[in-house]
Amino acid sequence: MADALQEAFAEPAPLWEGVRKVGDPLLVLPALFHALWAGRLAADLGAAMHERMSVWAQAAE
Prior knowledge:
alpha+beta; three-stranded antiparallel sheet; 3 helices; 15% strand
């Protein structure tokens, strides 16, 4: 699922749009939040989280 999230957010996209591309939101959202926590995905976490917030993949190191 990590690879699918990286692909879905290769370009900045709204959170819900990318999640729905990957699969069932109940399964994908925990993986997305983990990827944000781990730094593989990024978002403006200083703002309120919502379904339209922009999420993007971090560049591989």
